[in-house]
Amino acid sequence: MIDKKFTARLLRSILRRSQGLSDHYLIHPEREWFAGIGIAILALGASSAWSFNLYTTHAEATPHTTEANITTNQVYREAEIKGALEEITKLREENAQIRQSLENQSATPLFIPISTETTPEEPQSESTEFFETNTPTTIESSPTSTIPQQAL
Prior knowledge:
Layout: H1 4-18, H2 29-58, H3 78-104
């Protein structure tokens, strides 16, 4: 914690260096700590100033443009438009003719119906090969039964 004694000692060491006396210690944790804090504060201040400047330059910009600001030259090519409309009407008439010819044809089924009434040759059983299929299992005849016979 920074208190009055620490700051006095720090000032005394700074003043002593200015008189020509050198400090013989290679590692100064307090000095490195304060240098790191100072650099961090400077970096934070510089990035804050840059962010504020960027915000103020782009704050007035609007993403939507009005129609008055847009000036485009529209070229109306009447011949090309008429040709395209004629092509569309010709294709529409051909489509109507094809549709009419398909409606006039008799409808033929696309698949052969298969009778759904089938009888299975063998009854399907859900038992597996580990169990006998025709043997009834009761609690009395079960070899793994843990219930005493008196309780039944």
